[in-house]
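hey so u asked for the seq, here:
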Amino acid sequence: MGERISDPFLVVYGDSLLRLDYTELLGFHRSTQSHCTIVYHRPVFSDFLYEYHDNALSYCGKRTNYGVLDVNSNERVVHCVEKPPLDEIKKRFENAVASAAVYLLRKSTLDHIPPDTASDFPSDLFPKLISRSVPCYGFDIGKGYRIDIGTLPSYYKTQMSILHGEIPFDLQHYLSESGGIWFAGKPVPLHSSQFTPPLLLCSNCSIGDGTVIDRSIIGNDVAVGSSCKIRNSILLDHVVVGDGVEISTSVVGENCRIYAGSILPKNTVLGSYCTIGDPNSFQ
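ran it, structure tokens below
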């Protein structure tokens, strides 16, 4: 296994939306002779809190949802705690920054993990490297960004923020002449009375007569029937929607079937392959 790992090797968490210059990251890693480089950003920690209960201490408190680093003036990481309480950040960190969950490491750092032992990068390996004076550095994401999309609310909010142009993101799709409607494939026939931009309509989607689509994302190979109302929603690939369906502020997973006349309550989330409604009413 170890022989197949490149040196250095890159770790990127799958629940992140990232804009990052990886060439610059690699140059920084080499110039500092770092063994472990952790990309960081500077969010407002108090905006990303959740309540926790510590059974050992029998009290509740506020814990940030970030791994937190203390980085000195030379960008060396001197302290690392995964999701600490907010009061600990204020007391123990001089220059608190948030891990962006992107790591560039030498293969040799894995030698600090005991064999046949489960080990977490931020909770176990990084504190051990720092305590043993292994060179660990922080790389400022700078003009880039890292957004956690690991929860349904953050996933939905991020998708809609991209659609509305609030997050820098190159959709790389064809923009309609009237603006506000992106196509990821051959444009579908549009009628101005049916569509309220911004919209993203992906490849091979079809929209029935009299259907209203308002500020939504329609995935690849999605078929929407006639006289539907879809507002502020995300329909992922291969969804089939019958006539007269209403969907609002919701996320519909891949390969779902929603039969004619169904009304999804606001803030509905459907996992992949869900079926809603009466199959006999499908048109």
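Helices lie at 22-31, 86-92, 121-131, 152-163. The two ends are 53 Å apart (CA to CA).
lmk if thats what u needed
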